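Human: Not sure, check this?
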Amino acid sequence: MNPYENLAFLVDTLNSVQKIRQSTGNRVTHLAKQERRDEVTKRYHNIFQSVEDDLVGTIAPLVKSHPTWKWAKKVKGVGTENLAKVIGLIEKVERDGKYGVECFDTPSKLVRFCGFAVIDGKAEKRTAGEKLHYNSELRSMLWRLGVSLNMAKGKFYNFYLGEKEYLQNRYEKEDKKVMPTPKGKLCPGCRKEVVVKTAKYCPDCGATLVKKNEPENVIFEGHLHNQALRRAIRMFVIMLYTAWREELALPVRMPYPVERLGHSQVLKPEEFCE
């Protein structure tokens, strides 16, 4: 039996409660701007906030007893809630009597399950009519964690900066120019750029706005940022895998690029500790 099976259930429950708490909170805020008040919404918002706080308090000691915490607690920007939402979804995996990280005999397999594999030189995406090869919820949780790692300005942030510089230099050698991401979106109806913050539709013709495509030989700064952040998150997954399996005394294999393609970069989990 998986001793952390309950963690997966608690994380699922926390995610559901947070969505409702955010929804009721948004309604309370919206009504307040109109100088209105709905006591029923306010009461349920407080109830869900209380349930969320209770769940967070229940999850924290479980995370601190988990094999990954010995390493993760030394990584700037992780925290118990962010880590729980990652390891909880991995602990849900069960195959042939194994569970969690035991189901992945290589770090590359876990990276793909998390949604950060590179297939034919490109990030893996949804394909219409095909079954997903990764857990979309887990990928979202890791993106959230990646943002937290960057904001903390720790060792993973330094790794992100190094990858960003490497990518920029590579694009310059390929005669590609890195340019600021356009602030606006493109209206296919009016055929013009529309500067908006959150709107999805053109205020003039009502057409659905789309992001501006990169011109040939141009890389937007936002694209460069996302590429570097993906690499940092992928490295976090590999380090998590290594630290987790080492703590469980399980064999640890090198990532596919190192083991099969001759890449020389071999980093260790302790190199990302503060």
DSSP finds nine helices and eight strands in the chain. The longest strand covers residues 177-179. The radius of gyration is 22 Å.
